[in-house]
Write a structure and sequence with these properties.
Structural class: alpha/beta
Mean pLDDT: 89
Strand content: 15-25%
CATH class of the largest domain: Alpha Beta
Radius of gyration: 24 Å
Helix content: 25-40%
Number of strands: 16
CATH superfamily of the largest domain: Glycoside hydrolase/deacetylase
Low-confidence stretches: 2-23
Bound molecules: zinc ion
CATH topology of the largest domain: TIM Barrel
Largest sheet: 6 strands, parallel
Number of helices: 16
Shape: elongated
CATH architecture of the largest domain: Alpha-Beta Barrel
Amino acid sequence: MKKLILLSICGLLGCSAASLSAGDNGVCLSAENTLRDFYAAINNQHCDIAGKLRQGYDKKQCQHIKNATVISVQPQTCTAGQATFLLEVKFQKTNNRTSHFYGTVALANTDQQGWLITGFQSGNTSLASPTSPLMAACWTSAELSGNKQEKAIHKTAADHSPPAYDAPNAPAPTSIGALSHSIRSVAVPADKKILAITFDLCEQANEKTGYDAEIINLLRASHVKATLFTGGKWMRSHPDRTQQLMADPLFELGNHAWTHGNLRVIRGEELQQQIRWTQVQYEQLRDGLLASACAAPFKAQAAQSIPPLPSVFRFPYGTCSPEALAAVSGQGLAPVQWDVVSGDPAKSQSAEAIVRTIISQAKPGSIIVAHANGRGWNTAKALPKVIDGLRKQGYEFVKVSELLQMGDPVTASSCYEVKPNDNVKYDKLFGKGTE
Ligand SMILES: [Zn+2]
């Protein structure tokens, strides 16, 4: 959530931005004025004022600058809640050295105090832009953008604790109905060039896996729809990220079991919990998002657009049993596998190999599997070429649930990676898979 320090600078610099509506050019101008006021304050050595315009600004920085020259300010995104600019500034320091900033600056608008600078990112890549008013109201671009460190995976003590409550309050989804088979792809007319790219966010009990900001930012920047199969425990350990992904109309969240259980081995109530607790965790975070102050103006719309519960499920390790298939469809979920395997959890799978595999195997109705939890080693590097290559062939990316509406599922009676029984080895390797 956006955490802004509210400052009493309204009288000093004006609060006109707060009254402007989204998309108004005046919003851009008003935010830009704050940015220019910040550098003017530095040039006049009004370091206290500069400190009030930039969150967390170290006034010593200001004191060491003799002159700041704004060379260019280009608006990137401007909404009522946030604005980003591509910015170039040259500095002359008090020690007569010079420095140079070129990159993106993000500003957030507070209700009463107007615009504040919330972050700088050097380089010419833009910060991730919010794709809905709800996102713009709840997070700054810098908060949405994240950083590469979040991709790291950490070993932890085993955590098998349940979510806050045992069963979802919302009724089970009924999007596809009972299915005793797994879905490999969707039969759409050959000339209908649509497919679904999916990313798994797996997390076992004894680890905290990552958030691959680069992948998500690329999907947002390229406006690619995707289905993200999130583990229940992953959602619990990444609540902000989960809520951001939920709030983003580009994405749908699917269920990827509570602690990544091997559902060919796990049975009975434990099997049911792996599925059900993940639904609960999603519901709890969705409720939290809808109840948050930033979401209040968009609550009715968000309640409509963010599904109450996931309607698609992905088996960890791609393994299932007839009992597991029944348990998944019994909780209203469609068991979604894939027909194109990116191979990205293997470190040896290069970006070039990922691109080649996906581009050569994708066909209308395909479901592509990749990872966005830190285990997609070269996925982010491959993604621009994958997106570009498929779009050049005329493909449009849709969410899995949308793909399922466009044709009959192509199913298999068991669950496998590329051909039947090819993942039986995981039973020995991972056992129940939850540790
Ligand atoms: Zn997984």
